[in-house]
Amino acid sequence: MVMISASILASDLSRLGEEIKRVEPYIDMVHLDVMDGVFVPNITFGLPLLEAVKRCTSLPIDAHLMIVQPEKYVERFVDAGASIVTVHYETCLHLHRTIYQIKDKGAQAYVALNPHTPVEMLSDILNDIDGILIMTVNPGFSGQKFIKNTTEKIKRLSKIIQQKDLKIKIMVDGGINEDTVTDVVCSGAQILVMGYGIFRYDPASFRKKLEEIKCS
User: Fold this and answer.
1) Is residue 179 annotated as a catalytic residue, yes or no?
2) Predicted confidence (pLDDT) per residue in 56-99, tens digit
3) For 209, which DSSP code?
4) Nearest to 7, CA basis, from 195, 177, 173
5) Model confidence pLDDT, tens digit, residues 167-210
6) Where are the chain's structural domains?
7) Catalytic residue chosen out of the listed positions 36, 62, 130, 173
8) 173 classed as catalytic
9) Counting runs of H as helices and runs of E as strands, what totals does the chain give?
10) What's the pTM?
11) CB 51: neighbour CB atoms within 10 A?
C-alpha cells in the first residue's frame, strides 16, 4: 500500500494541531521540512516545531533535513521525536557515518537526492539505508511544478532495489497531485510526500484516487 506523508509546510500553521487532526484519517505520517537558508533558498522549521508536532499526533514523524552539516543535528531530531530522518547526499561529507548516527539512535535513515543527482551515487550504501527520497522538484519551496523526467529516475531506482532484493523504501517529494500521482506510483514510489495536495484540497478524495490506481 502506498503511504502519504503530509508536509505541514503547506498547512495553516496558526492552526497546526487542528490541521493535523483534520488530515490524520487519510495520511500515514507527518513530514517536517527543515530548511536552513543555505543549502536551499528558504528557512523553515527546527526542533521546537518537531516537538510541538509530536504533541499533536501519534503518527510517525518524518524529518527531512535540507541543511548543511546535518550530522550536527540528526541525533537531536531523533530525540525530539522523529521516526525517520532524511539527509541529503549533496550535504553529507561522511554519509555512511551520518546514516549510522541516525540508525544508532533507533530511527530509520533515509537519503535524499536532488533532481540532478543520479541514483547510482548511492550504490555503495544501499545495504545501510532504510529508504531513498527522490526529489521531483528542486528543494526549497512548496507548490512547485513536478519535473517530469524524474519518473525515469524512480523507475531506475525501483529496478535496482528489485534486482538486489533490498528492503529500501522509495519516497517521492514534490509536485505530487491528481495529475502526477499515477505516473509516480506506477514508477515505483511507496511513500508520497504531499503538502498542497493534502492540506489545500480534499484529502479524502485524494486517498480514494490513490487506492484506485491500477498499474500495468
Assistant:
1) no
2) 999 999 999 999 999 999 999 999 999 999 999 999 999 999 99
3) H
4) 195
5) 999 999 999 998 999 999 999 999 999 998 899 888 999 999 99
6) 3-211
7) 173
8) yes
9) 8, 8
10) 0.95
11) 13
